[in-house]
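User: Last request for today: this protein with protoporphyrin IX containing FE, please.
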Amino acid sequence: MVSQAVTAPLTRAATFLIVSAVSHPTAIPTIRATLSSVSDITKNISIRHPDGRLSCTVGIGSSIWSRLTSLPQPKELHPFQEIRGAKHTAVSTSGDILFHIRADRRDLCFEFERQLMQRLGNAVTVDDETVGFRYFDARDLLGFVDGTANPVDNEATEAAIVTQEDEPSSAGGSYVVVQKYLHDMKGWQALQTETQEAIIGRTKLDNVELDDAPPESQQSHKSLATIEMQGSEHAIVRDNMPFGSPGRSEFGTYFIGYARNLWVMEKMLERMFVGEPPGMHDRILDYSKAVLGATFFAPSDLESL
Ligand code: HEM
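Assistant: Here's the final one, the structure of the complex with protoporphyrin IX containing FE:
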């Protein structure tokens, strides 16, 4: 069984495209045919620039799962559940299918999306399209290196891919959560660097991990996003990308996480938005507003849906 390119290494460019099927009898067959041609489109473009590391991962939402596939629905798959903290909300937004297009060159992502949209034609409407880019040494727009604690190689597979033992009918697939955040750059830049570092849990310039704060006190982002159960840590694979437009004063982070168990990402979000202890939410949220939230499952085989 071959999984999609879920654990592909960080690239220089990415496009995050979320679409929904229109209600027309030809829509579902068109989408199904397009999904089965994703690997052909990738090959046709990659051959022109083999070193561009082009890949596309497709996530299917619970809203369309049973109409689009004959596979049993993955047991944890459900729509993104809004999380309301005392101060901040993780919103839930619409979308049937996610395309996570990655490459080291923007033109490859563009060309892939162009050919994809041509095949999808009138079968879909676009819910969101976000173009991300690598910012210097993989920094987010808050100025911190993002992605350091990601598991690699076998550990990435272990964190992100559902196994036969977990769920035979979904084995080789991966749960995907996406969120789009818009940053209050003025507010963030007004903070002392030491305060920013305490919020993130790492030093800014050289990316060194800080110790966890004592229990019952304000935790950093990295501590709140660390899930430990019965002595073992549950990791996820992230591939966040900055996006934005200085001319429109838009500065954002597109969060994407892949996990073998959806509950792990939901627990992270609960700890961030509600806080641990409750009330002490992730201070990153005081400067980052969630404007999109959606959950999908990336099945192993797109050709026999
Ligand atoms: C760690 C940024 C949202 C999960 C980090 C780090 C940064 C960062 C700079 C430290 C370096 C690293 O290990 O990558 C951001 C930004 C976000 C965001 C700017 C959005 C505004 C999220 C969300 C989740 C998440 C929504 C999960 C649902 C994690 C995890 C770690 C991490 C698991 C690693 C913790 C560890 O050290 O083990 N993030 N993040 N992040 N983040 Fe986020």
